[in-house]
Amino acid sequence: MSDDGRRFAGPDFDEYEPSKSYTLGGLCPVKLGDSVGPGTPPRYRILFKLGFGSFSTVWLARDGVERRNVALKFVQAKSTARSQELNVLERLRAPNSTAGQEPYVIQLLDSFEHTSANGVHQVLITEPVVPLLAPDSCFEPKVTKDVLRQIIEGLAYIHSHGIAHGDLYPANFGFAVPGIHRLEDVDFWEQATYPQIWPVIPFSPLCDPHSYPPYLCGKLDLGEFLSDCAPDIVGHPLSVRIFDFGGAYVVDGSAPPRPVTPPFYLAPEIVFPQVALNKEDPPWDQWSDIWSLGVAFHDLVGAGGIFPKTFFDNRKLPHHMVHICGEVPDAWRDYIDSRPWPLDVAPGMTEKFWERRKAYFAQLGVEDPAGLVRLMRRMLVLDPAKRPSAQELLDDPYFSDSASLRNIVGSTHPLHCFPPAFPAKADSQTTCPNLSTLEN
Ligand SMILES: Nc1ncnc2c1ncn2[C@@H]1O[C@H](COP(=O)(O)OP(=O)(O)OP(=O)(O)O)[C@@H](O)[C@H]1O
Q: Would you say 145 and 375 are in contact if contact means Cβ atoms under 8 Å apart?
């Protein structure tokens, strides 16, 4: 039941945005084939759905003016007024960036406001990207260094513009696909699998028919589509994009927005006040991004989550953090000792954990597992003041030979599929076998 008492018959799966979000202040009803944008005729034609998030739906569209394919993010009406995303993306615009010198950060191409029955929606137009991690694929282990270095370079660019991202987890990293523009709208219609759609039917006949779409639309897997229909486009040249600035803010002394990062990737300076002190909105900044990225690297190299996901309880996160960092801050001591799952901080516990990580990375074929472990340990430090900046991380020995790799990866396909038995999403047993004491 939505806030205004409306009910819809429609799918209730994770793959679709909830139909109850189509209400006053909520999502913009968008249909395939719609033309939107200021001007006559409207500039953008909706081709496929690319995804949805907590505040938006995102669509692949054809830009009829520039004759290119773009991603349109329709922000829900109630978030439009307070969203900082447009401001942040405008600051991150790189003037005159040429091929090979991109900032590895998604670029804003255009924006406008669109009015629907549910209110005024901000629409952000960016380049379309292929997610870095898809359910059945990741990037080739041999390009690990280059991918991770590009991500850190992108983060250094973001931070140098006074911005904290606030939502750095694997779903928000992608590859640029500049060659996608050569595909016309008919190429997509004819070659992509027709999306699964589900009719949306309001229970009440009084419901405004303009406030909801006629159907919820399944999303196009852009990586799979391009790998099948235009394999030469993906990853040539390899160029990472950090995207989703919906949780970002300009660090200028003002209060940061509420953190939107999934709990696993939240930095200790956010997690501890939330779970131990019941503070919902602890302050966070660029240093929190460094922690989140350290955690995300574990997923990005194909090793699954660094923390065990089964029976996960956020209140245990400080214990897991102590386990991988090997120290208990004074302010945490009472909390760590008073829980029903006391942590036995055994000597060598943390070293053993990282030795196992190293062996696992080697098993996955990741380049220089020891170097990667050293890099991650520099990032995963409980005290934010002791974490290196993104700029400093670029000088880490792990990347000392990655510049030479850049030219090689431009000519190889960076994405590959996991063989059926490959531990793509490691579970708690394979990921953190030595954390069992925490699960008692
Ligand atoms: N430029 C893009 N190219 C391709 N797909 C995109 C693009 N931007 C977003 N998406 C897809 O749409 C989804 C939702 O986008 P995004 O994460 O920006 O929305 P949000 O409402 O801010 O979500 P969140 O809940 O993650 O904060 C993404 O997970 C991704 O799959």
A: no
Residues 6+ apart with CB under 8 A from 118: 22, 23, 24, 25, 26, 27, 28, 29, 76, 77, 211
- 292-323: pLDDT as tens digits: 999 999 999 989 899 877 657 888 899 899 99
Choice among 10-24, 28-42, 94-108, 287-301 with the minimum mean pLDDT: 94-108
pLDDT, position 185: 85
Tell me how far CA of residue 53 lies from CA of 58, 220, 245, 288, 362, in angstroms: 8, 15, 12, 22, 34
In whole angstroms, what is the distance from residue 365 CA to residue 140 CA? 9
Q: Measured from the CB, is residue 54 less than 6 Å from ligand 1?
A: yes
pTM of structure: 0.88
Q: Please, are residues 382 and 325 in contact by the beta-carbon 8 Å criterion?
A: yes
List, in sequence order, every residue forming a beta bridge with 62; answer none if it has no partner.
45, 69
Q: Is the Cβ atom of 260 under 6 angstroms away from ligand 1?
A: yes
3-state secondary structure of 13: coil
Nearest CA to ligand 1 atom 9: 58
Residues in Cβ contact with 29 at an 8 Å cutoff, skipping those fewer than 6 apart: 22, 116, 117, 118, 210, 211, 212, 213
Of 244, 249, 258, 266, the residue with max ligand 1 atoms within 8 A of its CB, to mutate for a pocket test, comes to: 244
Task: Give me the helix-helix angle, 268-277 and 317-325, nearest 10°.
Answer: 140
pLDDT digits (tens, 9 = 90+) for 141-191: 777 888 999 999 999 999 999 999 999 999 999 989 888 988 988 888 888
DSSP assignment string, 152-199: HHHHHHHHHTTEE----SGGGEEEE-GGGGGS-HHHHHHHSPPPPEEE
Contacts of 158 (CB under 8 A, 6+ apart): 92, 105, 164, 165, 242, 248, 289, 390
